[in-house]
Design brief:
The chain has eight helices and 14 strands. It is of the alpha/beta class. Its EC number is 1.2.1.38.
Length: 321
């Protein structure tokens, strides 16, 4: 059994991670670290877990576990690892932005399985991608693989309220969020850097702008993204190289049908739809921001890192109705 620990156990992504790991056939959840909830049962915060586990939050860590998931606020993972050292054999999976940009200062592998599967299999330190970055990168990476990103890319995407985390702010209160819709961080969202890095990995000469407008939706979870750019080929050609790019992907699928969030919420799937309008290719992408955009993808990466079947523990079913 893989002994796993979680650092930062009270948030939304940690809750999803706990649920998955408790039911993973090859994992024992060794500890869940929280500075705000030590001594309390997990179900005091993640209330659906009552009757599922008696594990309590702890303010101590086991440095000998096989894998540690860092579910900390952005900027805090670097600080935590600087102050706490695990064994040489412990694998680290970080769910923050701290290590996503390639750097000589660290040896973290960027954990988008559809892009870096072989590197992930050999990784000891893994930077889990951001939720918007996952949805958008999966929508356009096949174009970069074929050297076809020659013009500006336009992206409009909407995420649910859980994308903002559990900390309260003006825009997370129910009275503000309900029956409301808004854009934020237009053209300067923090996930743009990792998207650009992934595109350049496949198309080194890529230098076109990514015009990204993120939006807040009045629903709990999920990301619906549309991306379009100029494209000179046929729709059938595009479908063929998208199929080729994702033919060995465990969780990314193509469809010709209209997409909506209920197809992917509570699953680790990304579903894509291609359409051509004049000289533009439109790609629609849908994911669950807490699963394929965070904790589900983290476990998918863990499976690869430990030589397990990629879908193990992640055969989750959408609540379609």
């Amino acid at each position: 059994m893989i002994e796993a620990g979680i650092i930062g156990g009270a948030g939304y992504t940690a809750g999803e991670l706990i649920r998955i790991l408790l039911n993973h056939p090859e994992v024992n959840l060794n500890f869940v670290f929280s500075t705000s909830q030590p001594g309390k049962p997990l179900y005091s915060i993640h209330q659906d877990l009552i009757g599922e586990t008696e594990i309590e939050f702890t303010n101590g860590i086991n440095i000998e576990v096989d894998v540690v998931f860092l579910c900390l606020g952005h900027g805090n993972s670097k600080k935590f690892l600087a102050e706490n050292q695990f064994s040489e054999t412990t694998k680290i999976v970080d769910l923050s932005t701290d290590f996503r940009q390639k750097s000589d200062e660290h040896s973290f592998v960027y954990g988008l399985p559809e892009l870096n599967k072989e590197a992930i299999k050999n990784a000891n330190f893994l930077a889990n991608p951001g939720c918007f970055a996952t949805a958008i990168s999966l929508a356009i990476l096949p174009l970069s693989k074929n050297g076809l990103l020659k013009d500006e890319i336009h992206v409009n995407a909407v995420t649910g309220a859980t994308g903002a985390g559990t900390s309260l702010s003006q825009t997370t209160h129910y009275t503000w969020r309900d029956n409301n819709f808004s854009a934020y961080k237009s053209f300067e969202h923090q996930h743009l850097d990792e998207i650009g890095q992934s595109l350049k990995q496949l198309q080194p000469d890529h230098d076109s702008e990514i015009n990204f407008i993120p939006n807040r939706g009045n629903f709990s979870r999920g990301i619906h993204a549309t991306a379009y750019t100029k494209y000179v080929g046929t729709l059938e050609e595009a479908k063929e190289f998208y199929h080729n790019f994702y033919e060995n992907s465990a969780f990314t699928f193509l469809t010709d049908e209209e997409l909506h969030l209920k197809q992917v919420v509570n699953t680790n799937k990304c579903i894509l739809r291609l359409q051509k309008f004049g000289n533009k290719l439109l790609v629609t992408s849908v994911i669950d921001n807490l699963l394929k955009g965070a904790s589900g993808q983290a476990v998918q990466n863990m499976n690869l890192m430990f030589g397990l079947e990629e879908r193990m523990g992640l055969k989750l079913k959408a609540n379609y109705f």
